[in-house]
Amino acid sequence: MIKVRLVGLFFLLITSIGLSQELTYKTVENISYYPDTSGLSDYQKAQCRLDIYYPEGKKDVPVIVWFHGGGLTGGGKEIPQALKEKGYCIVGVGYRLSPKVKAATCIEDATAAVAWTFKNIADFNGDPDSIFVSGHSAGGYLALMTVMDKSRLDKYDIDANDVAGLVPFSGHTITHFTIRSERGIPGEQPIIDEFAPLYFVRNDVPPTLLITGDRELEMLGRYEENAYFYRMMKVAGQENITQYEMQGYGHNMTHPAFPLLINFVQEHN
């Protein structure tokens, strides 16, 4: 397990610059990722949309699908500034939120967004063979669930193992606390069931990078559950997995972690 310090992060920032300084970029907003909108509720129509930021004049670029955080109860789709102008196609996904829907519905929306990306991203110069799934906090949890539970993408005739890489930032690997809260289970009581990425540990998962904040500064147990996920993946025979602990940073560690995501995409593209 590797612990990253600030010097290493500056190095990654420097090496990630210069991929596409001559490219121009375009943003397309509010695309519905449920193709047939006729049977959708007004809330689903409003929330289940994505934005795409992509370079013009260059095809088959790597794609990063980004899920926002917010505990499955808040937040909105976003294209992180730190991922712009790197030569990539960035997909910022919105999804329905608890308590308007059960939190498990968020996973269904996230899966539909990933499936839409596989089937449509070539129209926006993205490479469907180079799709990386990422997100922060609740978004990291959604990234994990869409890939770890293969049955979800199977419904769209997509093999989750065709994802190029999985990079959750401070994501739950146990059942999400909002799902537990809906069942009356306190946050201090861990559950591992079909809504836990840990439930689906296997040895053929795409290359995975787990990033959390400092174990002493993170949200309750977040580092430790990622460390356990890392260990169980290793025990299962998955060798292509790494965990980084961002020493000195708490749960909101996205800014120093983005260079790690960029470097990961470069290495696995």
The CATH superfamily turns out to be Alpha/Beta hydrolase fold, catalytic domain
Specify the CATH architecture: 3-Layer(aba) Sandwich
How many alpha or pi helices?
8
Query: How are helices and strands ordered from N to C?
Result: EHEHEEEHEHHEHEHEH
> In the residues, how many domains can be counted?
1
Please state the CA-atom Rg, rounded to the nearest Å. 17 Å
Total number of β-strand segments? 9
The CATH C-level class name:
Alpha Beta
Distance between the termini: 23 Å
Side by side, the strands of the main sheet go 1-9-8-7-6-4-5-3-2
CATH topology: Rossmann fold
Indicate the mean pLDDT. 93
The helical percent reads 25-40%
Q: Main beta sheet: strand number and arrangement?
A: 9 strands, mixed
Low-confidence stretches: 1-20
- Structural class based on helices, strands and sheet pairing: alpha/beta
Protein name: Acetyl esterase/lipase
Domain BD-FAE-like: 50-214
GO molecular function, one term: hydrolase activity
Keywords: Hydrolase
